[in-house]
Design goal:
Order of helices and strands: EHEEEHEHEH
Helix content: 40-55%
CATH class of the largest domain: Alpha Beta
Radius of gyration: 19 Å
Oligomer: single chain
Strand order of the largest sheet: 1-2
Distance between the termini: 31 Å
Number of domains: 2
Strand content: 15-25%
Shape: extended
Number of strands: 6
Number of helices: 4
């Protein structure tokens, strides 16, 4: 989440309070999307990483489209590569990754997994 230059955080928070809405999260901020494509050799040495980021837009459409196009271009040159898709737990990320060819293993990143595991352990 990043503060927007004209985010009007205080005004948005006051308007939400006046409307009787729950005030959660940082008012005047928006989510920034980022992603990477990394290529490793057979010895697990990283050979290359493509880093992408986009400022706020609905459903991270441009970011997801660019990631998909980059993956398609890489696999056109190297169809033998094994693909693993890694993301946090956001539902829209998984919907997008599932649509990307080729079908491949999907992994939730360690920090989000640990966060959810901690929440479950706290309940237990």
């Amino acid at each position: 989440m990043v503060p927007m230059k004209d985010g009007q955080g205080e005004e948005k928070r006051a308007r939400a309070k006046a409307d009787g809405k729950l005030q959660r999260g940082p008012a005047g901020h928006q989510e920034v999307g980022c992603g990477t494509l990394s290529i490793y050799d057979a010895e697990d040495e990283r050979l290359r990483t493509i880093r992408l980021a986009r400022m706020p837009e609905p459903k991270k459409a441009t970011l997801k489209g660019t990631l998909g196009a980059e993956l398609t271009a890489i696999l056109a040159q190297r169809p033998d590569l094994l693909v693993t898709k890694l993301a946090d737990g956001a539902k829209d990320n998984w919907e997008s990754l599932t649509e990307l060819d080729p079908p491949s293993p999907q992994v939730v990143d360690f920090f989000h997994s640990a966060e959810h595991l901690q929440a479950a352990l706290s309940v237990a």
